[in-house]
Amino acid sequence: MRVLEVASEAVPFAKTGGLADVAGALPEALARLGCEVTLVLPAYREALAKGLPIEPTGLEFEVPLGTRRPVARILRCRLPGSAVTTLLVANDEFFDRQALYGGAEDYPDNAQRFIFFSRAAIELACRQAAPFDIIHCHDWQTGLVPAYQKILYHAAPAVARARTVMTIHNMAYQGLFWHWDMLLTGLDWRYFNWQQMEFHQQLNLLKTGLVFADALTTVSPTYAREIQQAPGGRGLEGLLAARAATLSGIVNGIDTTAWNPATDPHIPRPYGEQDVGEGKYAARVALAARLGHAAPDARPLVAFVGRLAEQKGVDLVVELIGRMAGTGRAHFVVLGTGDPAAEESLRRVAAAFPGTVDVVIGFDEGLAHLVQAAADIVLVPSRFEPCGLTQLYAQRYGAIPVVRATGGLVDTVVDATPEAIREGRATGFTFGACEAGALVHAVERALDAHADRGLWLSFVATAMRQDWSWDTSAREYLRVFERSLAFPPTA
Ligand code: ADP
Description:
This protein has 491 residues and is an alpha/beta fold.
């Protein structure tokens, strides 16, 4: 099966969030299952500056974009040991920038940038020798691709018979733009209606993908249900409910090579289930040094790693720390960057409890690994969470997640109820209400369990034994691809 993966970010080229982890790992996992996979990405400044073996292909072509025809230059990268060809779409006007999507504010021309990228991706597909069976798109940035395939490129031999699959990584980001941006798409105004590309007088690129793709997926079964209703569907719940028969929820895998405590270069002493105590203690010592402490204290370490956004429940973390730091029951470490107000409240709470609360503002992949290795408890109090990766990394590193029961967190963490403990299935602690009191209660339950050494070690062992590798998830994607090929394309 020939698969074209189109995404706006992928590890190791460029990353702002979980999408990059997925788009970086899924192509390889599909290739291991026998697919022939090509990945298409924008050639961001960040991607070109990483010293990766990226080379020119000599291929360049004009891309229709409203009244303009900017040029796409195609670069190629074959990562060592990889079976996936990565093609990068270069255009300095659009992609030679400091950030992927903008800073505190989105770039004002993001519609133009990703309409260009989507059109370039399908034009590129048309120039490949062999036809594709599947075109797999991710999030709003690539939402136009299924529409292009059906409307403008249905006669192009390389893509005409392909089925398009649209994966939703987060309904909160839909790519909503001014209606006049419709002119840039090159699609007829008749598609600008409430059943296709329009959303309350605006152009909605995610909706476009969800309407035109043959199959839809999202990143967990629970999120697949949540987005068919308000508020999870963010206004598109009706459309998603109507397309429920083609919508699957597939939990993300994790990169088990990069996130492996037995081989992780970011931690001082690699470990497995047998020597988890020693490994975590060494990580704790290294983390203490990194944070400017002479030595770690003996209290359990409660950590949060993630984007400082409302979605992630950072406000609950701040309140939890405010209420619990004074009790001396735990040491808190927060690593994150994002909302300036959240960064400020975290700095304030760290200043109020020196020696008990450490806050690192920034994006630091290596430190994220060290924190997961050092932590006993990892907090994921998200308001909503399509899948979530931090709770999966935590389990692999023998840290017990405390999560809000929403989206993918429901599908990947088994709450430590008496029954789950008895059956040896418990991997974490969950709470329901989106309020600090509920989080505090869940963390207290976790700390009580931590005090019972035997019980805690059994949680840690169960968590570390979970299989979050991509192979399982990739097999499910393959089933979706096969199923969509078995049916005629949606009209
Ligand atoms: P989302 O995609 O919504 O941000 P996920 O849990 O799916 O959330 O993925 C977040 C990814 O980004 C994880 O790999 C996490 O370790 C990483 N990450 C988030 N914030 C930071 C940070 N400040 N430093 C290092 N890694 C981070």
